[in-house]
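Sample 1 of the test manifest.
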Amino acid sequence: QVQLQESGPGLVKPSETLSLSCTVSGGSISTNYWSWIRQPPGKGLEWIGYIYYSGSTNYNPSLKSRVTISVDTSKNQFSLKLSSVTAADTAVYYCAREGYDSPSYYYYYYMDVWGKGTTVTVSS
Amino acid sequence: DIQMTQSPSSLSASVGDRVTITCRASQSISNYLNWYQQRPGKAPKLLIYAASSLQSGVPSTFSGSGSGTDFTLTISSLQPEDFATYYCQQSYNTPRTFGQGTKVEIK
């Protein structure tokens, strides 16, 4: 079955760029949308954005000016870059697959496969 | 953005209890509503999608209902492994948004 694994530095300095990758195994990245979600310590979940394998993206407006999500189909990976980070960006970052079901005319989307998450701390 | 509001924020219950969690959307989202369970230190796990469809492998003690703006997640008989935090999430549009979570604790 499809599995996701996040990777990247656990510590990033303020004002620098956070960079994470998510490797997809057990299936092809060339289907579905692929998302990044984060969770600050002790808080709830925040959707960062997603990418389609074709490269089409959709970002949360609250982060849009600082976020870039890209895909490398040859490596079965997608990546997150978040620029100009501050302590408020300290969180567990998850990658997830946006699966779907279409029992009729409509498509129902949901995040059905998640990585284990990686903790990123922003500190000097 | 569509705001999702869950109630209660936390609850205490015993094994075997019936538990109900409510989620309200700030505008109609039809039935584009998902529920997730998150155990401490773990990634969220999909329980219910399209408001009432049970994800494969999820016990039938979980059920979901609702449409429009008001939704419910019900656990018919709480098991020890069900003590966790539950989140609703709308997939009606982007940005995807989550409720603030409901923590189910042991009484």
